[in-house]
Amino acid sequence: MTLVLVADDDADIRDLVIFKLEQLGVEAITAEDGSQALAAVRERHPTLAILDISMPGLSGIDVCRMIRADPEIADTMVLMLTARAQEQDVEHGFAAGADDYVTKPFSPRELVSRVQTMLSRAQT
Fold first, then answer.
1. Pairing assessment for the beta strands 27-31 and 77-82 based on DSSP bridges
2. 64: domain CATH number?
3. pLDDT tens, 7-42?
4. Which residues carry this modification: 4-aspartylphosphate (predicted)?
5. Into how many domains does the chain fold?
6. C-alpha neighbours within 13 Å on the C-beta side of residue 43
């Protein structure tokens, strides 16, 4: 089964994203901060990590850079899900190695569509 990590310090966002992922038949795990997110990626090797940028400890940008720098987990896809919507924020996300970038508030339907697209790419 496909494994997806959802890392966000907002429990309501985590719960909503997990609910939508489970409707897709995807196994999801969570992290409340950047350090937990990085540890989960290293331990569980999810196909996709959905990261908030603004989290306690390590930011989503930091986690993304660390994922890309580690050959054992560098193939993990990263989707930034964040309220940071300025053009420079988006550029920083992609420069750090993100595969996609979704801003809050977000459409759950659009998020699911982007996740499905990313996961289908991973299976090819």
1. unpaired
2. 3.40.50.2300
3. 999 999 999 999 999 999 999 999 999 999 999 999
4. 52
5. 1
6. 10
**DSSP letter assigned to residue 2:** -
Q: Distance between CA atoms of 13 and 9, rounded to whole angstroms? A: 8
**The dihedral sign for the CA sequence 63, 66, 67, 68:** positive
77-82 β-sheet, strand order: 27-31, 3-7, 48-51, 77-82, 100-103
Amino acid at 69: A
Residue-range definition of the domain harbouring residue 46: 3-122
Q: Is the pTM of this model over 0.90?
A: yes
For 78, which DSSP code? E
> Which residues contact residue 16 at a Cβ distance below 8 angstroms, ignoring those fewer than 6 apart?
108
Contacts of 19 (CB under 8 A, 6+ apart): none
Q: Would you tell me how many other CB atoms lie within 10 Å of the CB of residue 66?
A: 19
